Amino acid sequence: MTGYKNGIANGTNGHGGEVNGQTKNAPAYTAIENSLTKRQQSLVKDDYHVKGDVAFDEMNLWNGKLQYTNGINGTNGVNAANGVNSIHHNSKESPPSQISNFNDVMSYSYEIIKEIADYLLEKTSIRPKIGVICGSGLNSLADFLTQTDAFPYESIPHFPISTVEGHVGRMVFGYLEGVPVMCMQGRFHYYEGYPLSKCSMPVRVMKLVGCTHLLATNAAGGLNTKFKVGDIMLVRDHVNMMGLAGNSPLQGPNDPRFGPRFPPMTNAYDKELIKIAKKISVEMGIEKNIHQGVYTCLGGPNYETVAELRMLRTLGVDAVGMSTVHEVITARHCDLTVFAFSLITNKCPSDYDSDEDEANHEEVVSVGKQRQNLCAELMCKMVRAINESPQCK
Ligand SMILES: O=P(O)(O)O[C@@H]1C[C@H](O)[C@@H](CO)O1
């Protein structure tokens, strides 16, 4: 709790935020806490008491420089965390002069990404072919790796930190089914305050480290009424809602060393790998629990309204989450072959009288844990199949 509590409390000790150009003292944590309903309190407790230190410290890291330019900035919105002292400090990351929800591609130039890749390659002798991203509740996929070298994100130069419960926050190199892989145990989300280019920056690191494939997993809400909680959806395609609204990880100057200015996306998810996954699901006897479908990523962190869920269904979306799409776009831009699956952790109600529980992160993480072995088995078999495919040779 220290991070959140101290952070806000420091605000009252003369370190206010600035609202519409006026300095205001931040309210004490207890005042905020008291104004919440019991249910909100428990959600806040879960989110901030577990990871809050990290989330707030990450903000503190940018102490004095924190400016959201996406409609909430110092001049017409909130300029928070002025004067708040940092508790933990990721000294490797140079403070950005501005946090923009639009983009900071320039802060992750080819040279910086190469520096990160070289740093990792210097510290491990493993040379991964496949990059894996673990979704919420699916961190234990990395526990199946052998001969591991693990790097907490705060130890990697220029790396952000993962602030979400259920995301460990480290890059693990090792062998899965004898195949060299690197695995993100915890990813970065837009709602954590990182621009999309920063969320998907590790995919470019995977590329420069030598990976040819990206395997991404996520937790998602099931819109397709055929999907049950615990089922797996092989991602056939996505609808890039955030991109349609003008927010892309590729926004800004294009560096052709990564890929072309205008990359196609019609074959974003490799068809052959989807076929292989279906075959594997038959071998595993879980074909009834495996579907194919369309995923979309929304900005979060709130879950969707009924009207939004209805709209998404009308658009042909089968599962909704808060990640993956920008990672896949970044991967395809630099010509990684992509396979992704969603674990359906909750159903999405389509009417106001639904007796489904409201979506909540505890359930998401808990279903992830219940299905982690199944997901890991599928992942292991996919890695083995990819390694045996001519593409990977
Ligand atoms: O990292 P993923 O996409 O698996 O996590 C999903 C989306 C949010 O981060 C979280 C919501 O419960 O789960």
From TrEMBL:
Q: Which reaction does it catalyse?
A: guanosine + phosphate = alpha-D-ribose 1-phosphate + guanine; 2'-deoxyguanosine + phosphate = 2-deoxy-alpha-D-ribose 1-phosphate + guanine; inosine + phosphate = alpha-D-ribose 1-phosphate + hypoxanthine; 2'-deoxyinosine + phosphate = 2-deoxy-alpha-D-ribose 1-phosphate + hypoxanthine
Q: In which pathway does it act?
A: Purine metabolism; purine nucleoside salvage
> From what superkingdom does this record's organism come?
Eukaryota
Gene Ontology MF annotations: purine-nucleoside phosphorylase activity
* Enzyme class, first EC level, given as a word: transferase
One Gene Ontology term, aspect cellular component = cytoplasm
* Residue ranges of domain Nucleoside phosphorylase in the record: 129-383
Q: Which UniProt keywords apply?
A: Glycosyltransferase, Transferase
Instruction: List the coiled-coil residues.
Output: none
What EC number(s) is this enzyme filed under? Answer: 2.4.2.1
What residue spans carry the region label Disordered?
1-22
Claim: Transferase is one of the keywords in the record: yes
InterPro entries annotated for this entry?
A: Nucleoside_phosphorylase_d, Nucleoside_phosphorylase_sf, Pur_Nuc_Pase_Ino/Guo-sp, Purine_phosphorylase
An annotated GO BP = nucleoside metabolic process
Entry similarity comment: Belongs to the PNP/MTAP phosphorylase family.
Query: This protein is called what?
Result: Purine nucleoside phosphorylase
Organism, as annotated = Hermetia illucens (Black soldier fly)
